[in-house]
Specification:
Layout (H helix, E strand, L loop, with lengths): L10 E5 L6 H14 L4 E5 L6 H11 L7 H13 L2 H9 L3 E5 L2 H9 L6 H5 L10 E6 L2 H6 L11 H17 L3 E5 L4 H19 L10
Parallel strand pairs: 1-3, 1-4, 2-3, 4-5
Helix pairs in contact: 1-9, 2-3, 3-5, 5-8
The structure holds ligand Z5A and magnesium ion.
Pathway: Pyrimidine metabolism; dTTP biosynthesis
Organism: Molorchus minor
Protein name: dTMP kinase
Length: 215
Amino acid sequence: AIMGRIKRGALIVFEGVDRSGKSTQCKKLVESLKKQNVKAHFMAFPDRTTSTGKLIDEYLRNKDCKVNDHAMHLLFSANRWENVDKMKAFLNDGITLIVDRYSYSGIAYSAAKKNMEIDWCKQPENGLPKPDKVLFLMVNQEEIMLRPDFGNERYENREIQKKVFEVYQQLFKENDNFESIDSARSIEDVQVEVLKKTLETIKSVENLPLSTLDF
Ligand code: Z5A
Ligand code: MG
């Protein structure tokens, strides 16, 4: 008999504004999947451990650090490109990747800045592995205000967050892999839906080739 080839893992990305619960849901999801014997691995962008990641970390934490906005955008993108071989290796080994922020964060936070063109922002993302599903966590402003306060990083203020949300909405309309999740519910209720969508996605793409981003 011919050996069945390994079914690939799914590339699942979480997006959403600050405090929408991405990190919370990602970590729970990896645990939920492992309990069901589904191979899964957690990744987050920016990946602050690499050489570009250290520059990004400095930029985010130190608001006095001035870097050209275009250069910074390319650095966030390079931080994803640095991880492409690793990501493909996981997926080809049948391991599902649960990713906390990705190219859509890159586009949304950069295009929210003055003098940054959204079309320009999309270009360096082209060719990266395309997520099989983007779970877009939605919470209204009133609900968000009840969650623990903003931290002290560069983008953590209301005006920027509002612009970021507008770009996200545009990306939502333009991309067929987005799915909106109502995140104004208990962590457990959101997790039930997130797990269901993830298992459906894993099943539906396991025999399909991985695509690449093409904005
Ligand atoms: N950035 C960029 O500019 N370009 C790029 O290419 C990329 C990123 C990839 C750092 O990201 C910054 O980098 C980010 C975008 C920019 N700037 N901002 N803003 P980050 O991912 O490191 O950001 P973060 O510090 O982890 O925060 P976050 O991701 O915005 O939060 P979150 O992960 O969505 O939420 P959380 O940590 O899971 O939850 C927040 C709090 O709410 C926490 O106390 C939870 O216990 C609570 N929570 C969570 N869920 C619930 C529910 N359902 N009910 C009640 N309370 C809840
Ligand atoms: Mg987070």
